[in-house]
Amino acid sequence: MAQQTATRGKTSSRSTKSRRAASSAHGSQSGPLAGEPQELLRDYFREMTLIRRFEERAAQGYTQAKIGGYCHLNLGEEATVVGLMRALRKTDVLFTNYREHGYALAKGIEPGRVMAELYGRTTGTSRGWGGSMHMFDVEAGLLGGYGIVGGQIPLATGAALAIDYRGGDEVVMCQMGDGTTNIGAFHESLNIAALWNLPVVFVVVNNQLGMGTTVEMSSAEPELHKRAAAYRMHGERVDGNDVLAVRDAAARLVEQARSGGGPALLELVSERLKGHSVVDPGKYRSDESITKARESDPVAAFRAQLIEAGVLDEDAAAEIESAAQADADAAVSFADDSPHPDPSTLFDYTYATPVANDSRRLPADPVF
Ligand SMILES: Cc1ncc(C[n+]2csc(CCOP(=O)(O)OP(=O)(O)O)c2C)c(N)n1
Ligand SMILES: [Mg+2]
Question: Quick check: 368 pLDDT over 70?
Fold first, then answer.
């Protein structure tokens, strides 16, 4: 398939014309939203708003010392998250980096269980042992948030091999950040996935920063989608602030992978509204870059777009926002009311299966 080579800033998004032609029987709005069922558009706005409110409450929980360890938020990446998850079937599986709260929510996991994981409670997705970076839910098809940069890439590739070996029709989506595309495992995994034609879509959320390092400072080829060319793989770049463009590109590449068309690399250009993690004041950013990020806030932009198109009015938008706030607040109450794990279970999930010589000792126990 031809490599798309959109230059930085010039991102491809689905043509208005084809969108209009595809489903003119649906919504009556014109412009880029033409043909989109209105209820679906409102659903996207609901989900994006829930992620926004949830992450705001997570940040608050961290400053109240209710949440420990590291904590990275999807603030500014809501359109990317929702667009990507809408391209997957329930049976498709997702691997992500540590910035995954929004993915867990958009993959259909109850907000209370996601917040409880942040709070380290037994009702959390990983029984409270994983925390912010290690959400896991086999039923929902979320096979992990990973704290090691790029740790998810070989695992996702292996999962795609397992699907292929068993003759399944599921697809793996492997999300990562821009700062992950220069590590060895990225290149090894893309190579093997292309060689063996595995059903996996690699997604780079290019928020233009790896902690405080810009893409231009770290990557000799800053147009990250072009890395696919080294493996004769399809690569393309899309505006990560456009939920419909993300959904459409992802859906096309997921279906290509599902039908034996092989893996692909999708780059989504996005913005991180806050610091790398909740404790990062982001002092290394210029005022100009912060202003630019705020101006392209995908939640505010989508809200304005839906109002402009008559899909929402102010009252309906405000109603969705207060419902999202109530859901985020209820998630906090659920987490707060849930029990902490019993210390005696500390080593219970160290290995998937019991390991010989695993003495199940606690750190302070005598060695002999
Ligand atoms: C192997 C490894 N090296 C370094 C780190 C420290 N680290 C955590 S996040 C990060 C930046 C990754 O940036 P990017 O891939 O762009 O993801 P983003 O945080 O922007 O979502 C680094 C270097 C780590 N967790 N693992
Ligand atoms: Mg990044």
Answer: no
